[in-house]
Amino acid sequence: MPRAPVYEIDPAAFHADPYPDLARMRAEAPICHVPQLGATLFTRRDDIFAQEKRVEVFSSHQPDGLMSLLMGENMMRKDGAAHADERKATFPAFSPRTVRDHWKAQFEAACAAILDALAPQGGCELVRDFAMPVSGAALRVITGLTQLSPAEIDAASQAMIDGIANYAGLAEVEARCRAATATLDAAVDQARDLDPLSLVAVQRAAGLPDQSVKANVKLAISGGQNEPRDAIAGTAWALLTHPDQLELVRGGAASWRDAFEEYARWISPIGMSPRRIARADSVGGVDLEPEGRVFFMFGSGNRDEAVFDAPERFDITRDTAPSLAFGAGPHFCAGAAASRVLIAEVALPMLFERLPGLRLAGEAPFAGWAFRGPLSLPLAWG
């Protein structure tokens, strides 16, 4: 039977910059097995968009996957009714109306306080000093874990992100992840006097079991901290390195939302989503065997030359509707509305408005392929 062609990678080079390898995969072997990752990769946008919806073949239920083993079985690792029930239970915390009417004002207040403290300094490292605390402050209120600081939220998120991408099986990475999940479980146990629209509160009100409440809180923190953090800093960097694009926003020809959506397409903060092959199937002339592992490479699909013109170019005027930045199908990101409001309606406009003369003050190294973003971003203003 035809098996997926094998594509070898250098893991360190792939972590530093996956885009050259992903472009070759799309051109030469769009469905390929990468031994270093122990998975079959889907790299073309339309294949990912179509196949992600076939949950009977590409199952999110992965009891032996790193996320389930380290963080508990959250709604992202469930299919069908089990997934739908938990998604419905969490919806009151994440609905567009809740975000607009309840959370947005709290996002603005936290962001203003952070900027008030930064403004007199004349410079900062944006990831650490702005993007991280803004994202963490938002998650504190949304989850209900207000006893944790933004820095504690960020540290727990990063430890979990590292843990679920630990395909090399490094013991110290797993240990940090397990310590972080234990901290979050304890915080959920201690959570009292909750905002009724917080994630812990709405799940308890819906009658979800304690292990599901905890697993879904950890899911929200693992994805809801790093993605906004990296997208806030990354979009700011993209605009500052493309001043013509920044002028389009300042002049009203484009919006902050346009800039964020294009950045999330161009450098996808969440670059892939894993699936378990639930039954034998064939896609694109490649036979897939049960219990194999598939990675849907969102970061590759978002640079698919068949869908996006000059996809390697940052262009906030392009149509980003085909983007896979928030996934597709039944597992489309539950926190998309909160992310869009926090980044495009609060953090980015307030950053550029309240720090006049904002400019780069050094290099901004990027890293990652499953999760990608700037490691640091030195800025100055005034």
UniProtKB/TrEMBL annotation:
One of its GO terms (molecular function) is iron ion binding. Belongs to the cytochrome P450 family. This is Putative cytochrome P450 hydroxylase. Pfam families: p450. Keywords: Heme, Iron, Metal-binding, Monooxygenase, Oxidoreductase. PANTHER family: CYTOCHROME P450 YJIB-RELATED, P450, PUTATIVE (EUROFUNG)-RELATED. It comes from the Bacteria.
